Fold this protein.
Amino acid sequence: MPITRVCCLVCGSKIEDQSIDPPWLGRFRVLYATEEEPNFARLSGLGSRQQFSDVVRLDAADTDADAELVDIWLMRTNFGDQPLAVPEAVDPPVWGFPLHAACWSIMAEVCSPHKPDIQLFFDLCRSFPVDLGILNWGHDYAGSVCYLVHQSELAAGEESQLWNTIRAGTHRYDPLNIPEISRVFEHSNPDIVDFGPVALPRVDTKSGYRDDFARLPIELLQVILTYLPTADAGSLRRASRIFGAIPLHDEFWRSRFWPGREFDFIFESKQYFPLVKGRWRSIYFSIKALSACPPVANRQRIWKLGSCLWNLLSEAQTKLNGKLLGDPSGSDAGPSEPDVHWSTASRAIIPLNESFTFGARVLYDRMIPVPDQLAALFVSTVEIYGRHYVSGIRFQQRSGNSFSLGYIRQLQETRLVDCKQGELCLRGFYLAQDQRGIRGLSVINANTKRRSQWVGDSESIPRRRLVPGSDLRSTVKFLKGGFDALKLVSLSVSDGCRSDQARDDVLSLRDSVLWFPDVPLPHLKFSGAQHMKTRKEDLPVSTFVFGGYQGQDLGKLLRLTVDVKMDDTILALEAALSDGLPPIRAGISKTGKSVERLEFEIDGPAGERIISVESFWIRANTFLGFKITTNWSRTVEFPPIQPHQHSLLDWRTKFTEADGDVLVGFWFLMSSCEGLYDIGGICIDSSVNVDT
């Protein structure tokens, strides 16, 4: 039995050694390349899993049992120093992404009459992380794998990692060779249907009933039914007397097996087509009766997964625009980038010398100078399993000339800025980012001092503000993007200032980190943030403003509630307000016996307010909780400190009310594993009056 686990990139089921039943799980191929030629991917012949290594036949057409077998590194994502746990590399090292031979055959049917582009398929696989031998496309393989943490228990900005494959159920049944399907086509009986002349019912217009379809010839009515899904055709026949009187022709039942229809995954219908004319109705109902059969259900599941992959492959054929700066994989040197200072927005970018188990990976770098006399800006997006990502940016001058960065998809392109009068002067961007790339984008126009609407996804996604410098006169002169095979995963801007030139306009905290739920207003101050802990996942700084952005709600604060697990992990903060205002809540929503709600009453209407925030740590690097003090000399600890802990604690002052500063909320950092692991104060100068 192999000491490592790898799963099929199409169906998610484990690739077994050949001694395990059922046999189809042990028959696999590999999309592979070598370190010397990473941009020349190929499809292997059949491979075999062994205890300490995996081997394949390099020629896809080679079925000879005596053909040479070559060692291969499956699901490789680390291209730095070789760890001890992997087998000794071959020369040249061969590596790739495996899939069951049956799943490859189904993929070929999904793509028919086209053939999958092996290099695009390979680059697509390189663009997604690998969790415990499972390629994480962003879905659960239609129930074949489970997540480490349920989506509802994730902290803001987190992505759940895949955890394990599900061995029970229909997923282990052979989806390719299904004898029951062949028997349906070979032994079905002719349909007994009278396809003679059809007399359409006469419509009594005096009754008020009107059926406009009565004016159409019956041949056209039959064609309309043929192109409707089965459920819609049934609804139409119930709603229209004309359609209800038309018998469903043989062609209607055959069309149920067309691409995109309910039985498109029964691709055997194509080979039997000339032989079963007049029997499609009985074939349809026989196949429908087989739908619950485990092999057929598994075929349908894998077909849907393969169809989604084919859609991604179609998107990946888009040309990548911009000045080539080199392939980060090392295969394409490219010219050097300009020697300027860059401000970069990226999240969880995993370098090539580290294992790619989460986040994103840059495969290509591109750069363009921002043209002058800009009249419009367009943004292209791509949909990946229900999520929209930014894939490219296009500038248009008043002359009509266009300059593009990234993957421009005209059918998914939005005109974000249109300057009918004057010019677009690009100050920067607002970005919505998850760990896999840039989900949404908004433009800051320096001339209007306003930001545009969002394009892409932006709700409930961490955001950041990307500008080249804090000086309001600083505008974007260069734009650089890091891309994988589909989308934009990092974005950099520069105002043209040389990298060796000292800058006075150092970016503020507001423009340096990721925020949730939104980038804070510029008048807010963040106390205690100088020692803010960072994470490799680049989790956002969450804001919890209970007093209003101008302090107008401080007199309405009635209660502060903190949700704490049995192990003293802080999960959520909640503030109750008077005047019928809804409670303000931030953090992870989790209920049950393992969660305790700690409440602290605050008499805001009588003038009580929080004037001090302290955090307590153990051994200087492990956050335990925080303590607040009010102007009525009342204190509370969340969670309560145990007597034996006092001598071990390291206290840090996160906020003390000074002259002119008023606490209106908290900032905090949180992960699903650690809960809240750092906190500080959000305050305002009481003399500031801003328009929120």
User: Anything to note?
Assistant: Residues 294-315 form the longest helix (22 residues). The chain has three domains: 23-172, 322-510, 525-685.
